[in-house]
Amino acid sequence: MSKILMKGNEAVAEAAIRAGCRLYFAYPITPQSELIEYMAKMMPKVNGTFLQAESEVSAINMVYGAAGAGKRVMTSSSSPGIALKMEGVSYMAGAELPAVIINVQRGGPGLGDIQPSQGDYFQATKGGGHGDYRMIVLAPSSVQEFADMAAEAFDLADKYRNPVMILADGMLGQMMEPVEFKPAKTQEEIDALGNIHNSWCICPNEDGDAKHHHEINSLEIDPSVLEKHVNELYEKYGRIERDEVRFDTYNVSDDNEILCVAWGTASRIVKSAINELTAQGKSVGLIRPITCWPFPYEAVAEAIGPKVRKVYVFELNTGQMLDDVKIAVQGKVPVTFWGKVGGIVFTPAEIKEKLEACF
């Protein structure tokens, strides 16, 4: 299949439809408006349902209901809109409901601006909602990866009955790159996806011994019952941490003197700086977490070769991934951070200057 030049926001929407998403509820906010516009245009063409809710809170509760029926459902927003959805995300995690949430991040806190940012790492990985829960968090660095993650996110959500977030940013949502899409699922395949949830999802109110209407709830009045439920959730999260860690390495070797850690679009800028330093005979490696949760702690630790004198973290925030990197490094070498905020994106030249000062 030939590649198509598309914006990231539109590419992930198309990929979600091809992956079997037939229910989408959201509320407009920049810089992800093209995503909701694309879904409004295309969902009716595949016999799907698009609904612009009256608020982000309404949208996430519509997602809760659709997920409870065992359907592939998605919502999207940007940073402050995602903040409004987080109570519903906690409810879905507590009720073990699969859904995909896309966050095209903008500057903050508060309303901030509509420029690119990576300021929602804490919100996504440390629990923006209440209680002991986790979301699987995927972080793309290209439009192709953004699109590919749509199908992966739905599969992971179904596999673990858990919300999955794709954590992009305004730059990735707005940039245009060539994309090659996977073949769209047939209606038969989409119908089969719904059947995998029949053991727990809300079923039609029909009589008969074989019918079970089921209940979906995250409220447990008895503390001992809630304790058992939360412990079972964390056993599931442990399996996710064991089996679903994803990361990418670039130029990592035993000759590295500096190891960089960066995620999302920031990692592409760091790669450009590394290429320039490599041409000058300097050895710098990069670990890129693809899953921000579960975080690739072991991969970062193992990438600290015998010559590494420093680990350098680069993000478009004030150092939100920094704590996770420090946990991975365990004090073996110094960890340094540098980032940009306010929607300002650092350049390869700036990254190169920071790294050159380490030699």
Characterise the protein shown here:
There is one protein chain. Helix 1 (8-18) packs parallel to helix 6, helix 3 (56-68) packs parallel to helix 4 (79-95) and helix 10 crosses helix 13. The chain has two domains: 4-195, Rossmann fold, CATH 3.40.50.970; 247-356, Rossmann fold, CATH 3.40.50. It has 13 helices and 14 strands. A seven-stranded mixed sheet has the order 3-2-4-5-7-6-12, sandwiched between helices. A five-stranded mixed sheet has the order 9-11-10-13-14, sandwiched between helices. It has 359 residues and is an alpha/beta fold.
Which helices and strands appear, and what pairs or packs with what?
Blueprint: E1 4-7, H1 8-18, E2 23-26, H2 33-42, E3 49-52, H3 56-68, E4 73-77, H4 79-95, E5 99-105, H5 121-125, E6 136-138, H6 143-160, E7 163-169, H7 170-174, E8 176-179, H8 187-195, H9 223-243, E9 247-250, E10 258-261, H10 265-279, E11 284-289, E12 291-293, H11 297-302, E13 310-315, H12 322-329, E14 335-339, H13 348-356
Parallel strand pairs: 2-3, 2-4, 4-5, 5-7, 6-7, 10-11, 10-13, 13-14
Antiparallel strand pairs: 1-8, 6-12, 9-11
Helix pairs in contact: 1-2, 1-6, 3-4, 10-13
* Percentage of residues in DSSP E strands: 15-25%
- Based on the coordinates given, report the CATH architecture of the largest domain: 3-Layer(aba) Sandwich
Radius of gyration using CA atoms only? 21 Å
Any low-confidence stretches, pLDDT <50, length ≥5?
none
Question: Which key features would you list for this structure?
Answer:
2 domains; five-stranded mixed sheet; globular; seven-stranded mixed sheet; 18% strand; Rossmann fold; alpha/beta; 14 strands; 359 residues
